[in-house]
Amino acid sequence: MSKTLIRHITKDFWLPSILRDGVIRKEGSNFGTASAKQQFRMIGRFVWFTEIGYQSMDVRPVSFEFFAEDIKAIRWTHIVRSLKKKLSRTYAQALNQSAIDIGDDPEKWWVRKHSVSISKATRIVDASGQEIHFDR
């Protein structure tokens, strides 16, 4: 059975701190806007991944590649189905629709409820496709 390659895509601004700490932390660990805090209350906080490459970003992205099975990532669609509160499900559906409207595909999203060690990454790639070497 083949493994599913997933990517955590972030701004290159965060690369030095991720490499220094050796982990990718849940969203909101280093900042939190009012809208983000509302999202955390509605659907939870996660480390997000996608099976898709870069979508349109207004910054230089960096991609950490993992196999979903190796880091025990969960499909986002499973999380949405498990939400108990109607308001939380509605919020998640609105998030999904917003993504679809800009050409993304929530069916290809994965999450983890906990930080993930970058030592489990198969590779790290910058916006130009160059591999970034790091100590595991």
Key features?
136 residues; four-stranded antiparallel sheet; alpha+beta; three-stranded antiparallel sheet; 5 helices
Give the topology, please:
Blueprint: E1 5-11, H1 15-21, E2 23-24, H2 34-43, E3 47-50, E4 61-67, H3 68-71, E5 74-75, H4 76-82, H5 86-101, E6 109-112, E7 116-117, E8 123-126, E9 131-132
Antiparallel strand pairs: 1-4, 2-7, 3-6, 4-8, 5-6, 8-9
What this model shows, in words?
This protein is an alpha+beta fold and 136 residues long. The strands form three sheets. A four-stranded antiparallel sheet has the order 1-4-8-9. A hairpin with a 4-residue loop joins β8 (123-126) and β9. Helices cover 32% and strands 25% of the residues. The longest helix is centred in the last third of the chain and has 16 residues, at 86-101. It starts with a strand and ends with a strand. It is built from five helices and nine strands, in the order βαβαββαβααββββ. The mean pLDDT is 86.
Shape label: globular
Between the first and last Cα atoms, what is the distance in angstroms? Answer: 26 Å
Tally of contiguous helical segments: 5
Fraction of helical residues: 25-40%
Structural class: alpha+beta
| CA gyration radius, whole angstroms | 15 Å
Order of helix and strand elements from N to C terminus: EHEHEEHEHHEEEE
What is the number of E strands?
9
Strand content: 25-35%
What does the main sheet amount to?
Answer: 4 strands, antiparallel
- Please list the strands of the largest sheet in the order they lie side by side: 1-4-8-9
Return residue spans where pLDDT drops below 50 for at least 5 consecutive residues.
none
Mean pLDDT: 86
